[in-house]
Amino acid sequence: MHTNTLKIINKDHFRQNLNIYTRNAFFKLPKIDNPKILDVGCGTGVPTLELARVSGGEILATDIDQDALDYLDEKIKSEKLEKQVKTLNCSLLDLDFPDESFDIIWAEGSIFAIGFQKGLEDLRRLIKDNGFLVVHDPYQKHVEKKDIIEKSGYRLLDSFMVHHRIWWSQFLRPYEKHIKDLQEKYIDNPQVQQALEDELNEIKMFKNNPEDNCSIFYILQKN
């Protein structure tokens, strides 16, 4: 989605309603002074910026969507976080960093793209000894994932669910109303209309199967 369209739609304004869960996950970690954090699959960076605010650390935010990164870069500048947060166009499959580069790796809604087990295994080498990985993932196959966590060389410190009712009430319901308002406002803009239709289709998928849309945070420590 083009950067200007991202700004018009302003999805981040509504996604920020869920930042409380990003904070909750972060504060389940032991305190680390000035942590080095890799945020994989950051998108437009709503959790990224929240991490910057609460961690005081150095964050490298990666994604393959350059328009999303451009939008995040603008927000970084506007919040004067340039010294704290950097962005990099980089795939989850091509994280070419030295071993044990990061105190914390943060993956909110991103490793599903390559699979839970592969994600945990690929990221492990980048985490410092006894460092941490925080994953926000669909709740499905939770029991199987707990087994994968142990077999992949991590200790499960904590976990908590974000129920589908929370996703609906705190994010998607107000966002859906916003989208419909924008459809009227930008009725003569085909590019924006298409983007809005795509957003509504995602919301429709959620409404058709709400129980499948619970999510869970896993707070892991590298063994």
UniProtKB/TrEMBL annotation:
Stretches assigned to the Methyltransferase domain: 37-131
GO molecular function terms attached to this record: methyltransferase activity
Pfam families, sorted: Methyltransf_25 (PF13649)
InterPro entries in alphabetical order: Erg6_SMT_methyltransf, Methyltransf_25, SAM-dependent_MTases_sf
GO biological process, one term: methylation
Keywords, comma-separated and alphabetical: Methyltransferase, Transferase
Family matches, as Gene3D superfamilies: Vaccinia Virus protein VP39
SUPFAM superfamilies on file: S-adenosyl-L-methionine-dependent methyltransferases (SSF53335)
Protein name as it appears in the record: Class I SAM-dependent methyltransferase
Source organism of the structure: Methanobacterium subterraneum
Classification lineage: Archaea, Methanobacteriati, Methanobacteriota, Methanomada group, Methanobacteria
